[in-house]
Amino acid sequence: MTVQTVLNQIVWSGECLAAGPPPADKKILAKIRKGFGYVPEFAGPMTGLPWLLDTVLLTDPPLTYVSPRRKDLISLVVSQDSSCRYCYGLSRTLLRLTGMPESRLHTVETDFFSSSLPASDRQALDFARKIVRANPRPAADEFDDLLKSGFTRLEITEVAAIACLHVVTNRISTLIAAQPAPLEGLTDHWYSPLLRVFFQFFVNPVIRRPKPPPPSNPAALAGPFERIIQPLDGLHIARVYRQAVDSALASPVLPRRTKLMVWAVIAKTLDCPACIEEPRRLGEDAGLPPELLDEVIERLGGKDLTPMENLLVPLARETVRPQPDQIQRKLAAIRPSLSAAELLEFVGVAALANSISRLSAILRMC
Amino acid sequence: MDIQPVLLAACLAAVLLLSWLNWILRARVVKLRATLDSVTRDMEHMQRSFHRFAPQDVVEDILHRGVATRGERRTVTIMFADLVGFTSLSEKTAPEVVVTVLNGYFQAVSQAISRHNGFVSKFMGDGLMALFGAPEPNPWQAMDGVRAALAMRDAVAEYNIQLRSKGLPEIGVSIGLHRGEVIAGVIGSSELVEYTVIGDVVNTAARIESLTRAHGADILISAAVRDGLDERFELEVRPPMAVKGKKEPVATWRVLSCKDGAPAS
User: Fold this and answer.
1) What's the distance, CA A148 to chain centroid?
2) Which domain holds residue B46?
3) Which of B45, B137, B143 minimises the CB distance to A135?
4) Residue A323 to residue B52, Cβ atoms within 8 A
5) For residues A46 and A344, what is the distance between their CA atoms, to the nearest angstrom?
6) Is the same domain home to B43 and B127?
7) Do B40 and A269 touch (CB under 8 A)?
8) B221 lies in a domain?
């Protein structure tokens, strides 16, 4: 009962803004089932945007240094902090399935500082939350504190990268109002103790256990936003970011310049100069001269913007620290002016920009 | 005397007594757990609600230490708004009607403020102070502040239609905006705290609001706010005027309209 109350405190739209029939292609359907564990209502429309579907499916990438339990705790804390009803419910379910008792889970949710978690977990969670809140962005001394506590640079980077990858799923689920997953009920069935054994003794220690670090290859991480992605070299998660950014920018649904505008506005809201520089550099070839970009980020609009850009640019800032019900109402209001694919691509790009702009805090450590 | 049946009866009685005690205790535990759950839910709800009114780090600071120890310098746009016509309303109208009118007014203007990313820091009688750029940073705070002021003007005009239809006197709003660096934090005693800002910028914003009467304007802004606007905002310069506590006269601009929205009243 308490669980439902905690989850239901999040005011959430009762209708998914990207709902549609499931995909007809059996291969894609199998891929979705494997990734999500079921076929969500947004999966069908998302198949029209392969990059977005792949990005969402890749948010449980191989771990390098962080344990599966710590990763799940980060997911819980970040989803709770972002008031993402969908991800929060799933994170709780996963932690319960992997053996965390309800009482302990509740203590972590209420106040993880006073929970019985190991000190290093509490530190990692505090840091993950600060990275995601970005108000203010973690300062250099906070990275130093973690280093002094025994975290390595790559461990800190991986914690930040995991937290920011959850920003992607949190934002997508929140903006489209993804409805609570039926998987949440898995902990209440008669067979859930068996599932717990399966997850605790097979899935976590065998399938999800950290893999040996990949060989260093900074060149493979070169491309847009490389300044922020290349420090992830040596972590499996690096390729997820590289692939997501490249495919998002290459997708033909929204004009590239529109996506760069959205990106720059989000970067400006999060006070990330490094993330504004990149749209400025890439904009030259995408019909976005620096003067226009400056105008967009100064005025949240511009004389030479298309009607769609005039709609999306001011909305981009609202995705940074959204109240779920308010942003869902705003998205619902603009839905008739966009195609389903355009709306989803905006959501995906905004989610990715939120993630990368927050992740850029790691540059303060280097 | 055969002791066995007596012992058996005593054992049975003891078992029954213990079962009864166990049942009582279990019932009590269930009750206590329910109470604890309810209190925890309330606390979580309060914590969640409070997160909307102060930075999350500040809320956690209060939860862990009992007091907020963090204060920070921030650039914020501060709005002071006053209800015009309140004195005559309160003199001519029954107290319960005054309270209803006042609450309706605050509801209308608060919505306009939050729609434009503002945060109402405090209500002071018939006035209020709102912040743009706190608790969360906002690079477009001057534009948001002025847009909120224009939306408040519209909201009051709409509210006046309701008041007229009920035969009540109409009201107006006067708004002053200034921008600058302040100290922001949770301030107060252990019984009563609020997230607010302090500094000279706050006093100046209040003084600018009081200049609205002298300038015959409903929305006045300082040079610092004007610097954050673009040509979409139609402004009218007002002559600098002396205000209490300032050596130099304060230059202000009257806000007429914004081309992408609210027209002049």
Assistant:
1) 28
2) 1-51
3) B137
4) yes
5) 7
6) no
7) no
8) yes
**Residue in the block written with tokens 């990715």:** A352
CB contact under 8 A, B139 and A269: yes
Fold category of A43-221 in CATH: AhpD-like (1.20.1290)
- The C-alpha atoms of residue A354 and residue A168 are separated, in whole angstroms, by 7
Probe site for chain A from B140, B141, B227 (most A CB atoms < 10 A): B140
CATH architecture of A251-364: Up-down Bundle (1.20)
Interface test with A, best of B38, B44, B74 (most A CBs within 10 A): B44
CB contacts < 8 Å between A and B, how many?
46
Residues ≥6 apart with Cβ < 8 Å to B105? B83, B156, B159, B171, B173
Q: Is residue B265 part of a domain?
A: no
Interchain CB distance below 8 Å, A298 and B41 = no
**Number of structural domains found in chain B:** 2
- DSSP reduced 3-state for B88: helix
Q: Which positions in chain B touch A305 (Cβ < 8 Å)?
A: none
Taking an 8 Å cut-off on Cβ atoms, the answer to whether B40 and A110 are in contact is yes
The H or E element containing residue A315 is helix A307-318
Cβ atoms within 10 A of the Cβ of A212, count? 8
Q: How far is B37 from chain A (nearest CA, A)?
A: 7
Walk along chain A (366 residues) and give the pLDDT tens digit of each residue: 455 556 777 888 889 999 999 999 999 999 999 888 899 999 999 999 999 999 998 767 889 999 999 999 999 999 999 999 999 999 999 999 998 888 888 888 888 887 889 999 999 999 999 999 998 889 899 999 999 999 999 999 999 999 999 999 999 999 999 999 888 888 888 888 888 888 888 888 888 888 999 999 999 999 999 999 999 999 999 999 999 999 999 999 999 999 999 999 999 999 999 999 999 999 988 999 999 999 999 999 888 999 999 999 999 999 999 989 999 999 999 999 999 999 999 999 999 999 999 999 999 886
Among chain B residues, the shortest Cα distance to A80 is held by: B48
| CB-closest option in B37, B56, B232 to A2 | B37
- B248 three-state secondary structure: coil
Q: Are strands B71-84 and B172-188 parallel, antiparallel or unpaired?
A: antiparallel
Q: Do B230 and A299 touch (CB under 8 A)?
A: yes
